[in-house]
Amino acid sequence: MTLIKSISGIRGTIGGNPGESLTPIDVVKFTYAYCEKLRERRPKAEGERYKVVVGKDARLSGEMVENLVVGTLISCGVDVVKAGFASTPTTELAVTFCEADGGIILTASHNPRQWNALKLLNEKGEFLNAEEGQAILDCAEAENFCFASVDELGVIEERDFTDEHIQLVLDLEAVDVEAIKTGKFKVVLDAINSVGGIIMPRLLDKLGVECIKINCEPTGDFAHNPEPLPKNLVELSETVVKEGADFGISVDPDVDRLAFISENGEPFVEEYTLVSVADYLFSRAAANAKAKGISLEEECAPYKPVSCSNLSSSRALRDVTEQYGGRYEAAAVGEVNVTTKMRSECALIGGEGNGGVIYPASHYGRDAMVGVALFLSNLAAKKMKVSELKATYPPYFIAKNKIELSDKALIDKILEELKVVYASENINDIDGVKINFEATKQWVHLRKSNTEPIIRIYAEAQTMEEAEALAEKVIAVANKIIGK
């Protein structure tokens, strides 16, 4: 059994002993701490009520965890808006739709069926920052509980935000609804038996897209490993080819990550989900700027022609951004770090290489619904097959490795000395050490694990063989540093 506590929430396997897995006691402690710190974060006059949105994906433990969370919230005197089955981006948006003080999302994202989690939101429907998250962890550990009296208990309201989320997507200026309808697209959707099977078909229907559904019943009994990687999407690939579809769509259980399958059954590759969306937005902005005789900067206002992703995401985003005269910025790994960077740079688009698209014109959160609508707009504009679109992007491959160490002290030694060894290269050390080899457009990113004595190593190059060779070269240097 596993329980992982972090600044972004609490995540673990269901059942077992308190403190060692996600049990009712852990859920209550953590929810109580969220309420306590909510009052400190947003002080109100005496008598004013607090309101928190609770949404869940369709995993098997969802109802049990929801009952515990909602019961704890009202026992703390907090009113609850139950969003029911709702994607992560839907719950994020729901916080702003109903002007709530925060939100709790019950989802373990791409983790298997035995997992669940509490993800915590502020009044903007965005994840808490590191300081706020740590304060909740400390409060939960203190176990200093004091609940509301019977006259102060919170009340429960139920509300479905699905259609409001869909309408927000349809109303985005960059989503070309008429062009998509004219394109008469046919897609296959794999929603891994979770909430994507509820919301995604409804969006596609509004866009005039024919949708063939597989694994779309929200039973929570996942048909395959829920992480949207090629090895888990064999059924989707086969169905796309069999049905002669334009492409396939895969979402994870809470619909914040997105991957595509090309019409030929080949993976579009998760890293390129964000790349394709950025390509559409920048190409559209550049064309509009040229037609109007204004600068790209003026056309993108109130945002700037900037894209952003984390350090472990593909360089392809940078290449595409710079192709249109934009600027790329890197952030530390973690969605909250990416959104923080995007805000500071007023970025037009950003996200993560795991298929997470963050489009500020909608909201500061990964949203597969927005990603699909913008991807369809791109296809409608370019009038290409999906495989042809992929071929227009610079080819990159990422190899993933690790160094296991018995002494954690060696980790910092390796990272610090690698910066010296590769001092002539472009070094970024905001999150571990990333070495950018600008001459060859390759990179290596080394990060230490928070839970294990290991260094995770991601390397990217134009072929997988080159990426593996680059990683092995840096690993050899690291071993030499510690005399191994």
Give a short summary of the structure:
The chain is an alpha/beta fold.
Structure description:
A hairpin with a 3-residue loop joins strand 14 (347-352) and strand 15 (356-358). This protein folds into four domains: 3-160, Alpha-D-Glucose-1,6-Bisphosphate, subunit A, domain 3 (Alpha-D-Glucose-1,6-Bisphosphate, Chain A, domain 3), CATH 3.40.120; 165-261, 3-Layer(aba) Sandwich (Alpha-D-Glucose-1,6-Bisphosphate, Chain A, domain 3), CATH 3.40.120.10; 271-391, 3-Layer(aba) Sandwich (Alpha-D-Glucose-1,6-Bisphosphate, Chain A, domain 3), CATH 3.40.120.10; 397-481, Alpha-D-phosphohexomutase, C-terminal domain (TATA-Binding Protein, 2-Layer Sandwich). The longest helix has 22 residues, at 271-292. The strands form four sheets. Strands 1-2-6-5-3-4-7 form a seven-stranded mixed sheet, sandwiched between helices. Helix 1 (24-41) packs across helix 4 (130-142), helix 9 packs parallel to helix 11 and helix 15 (409-421) crosses helix 16. It has helices at 24-41, 62-75, 88-97, 130-142, 162-170, 177-183, 196-206, 234-243, 271-292, 296-300, 316-323, 335-345, 368-382, 386-391, 409-421, 464-481, and strands at 3-6, 9-13, 50-56, 78-85, 102-106, 115-121, 156-158, 186-190, 210-214, 247-251, 258-261, 304-310, 327-331, 347-352, 356-358, 397-404, 426-428, 433-437, 442-448, 454-461. Helices cover 39% and strands 23% of the residues. The protein contains 16 helices and 20 strands.
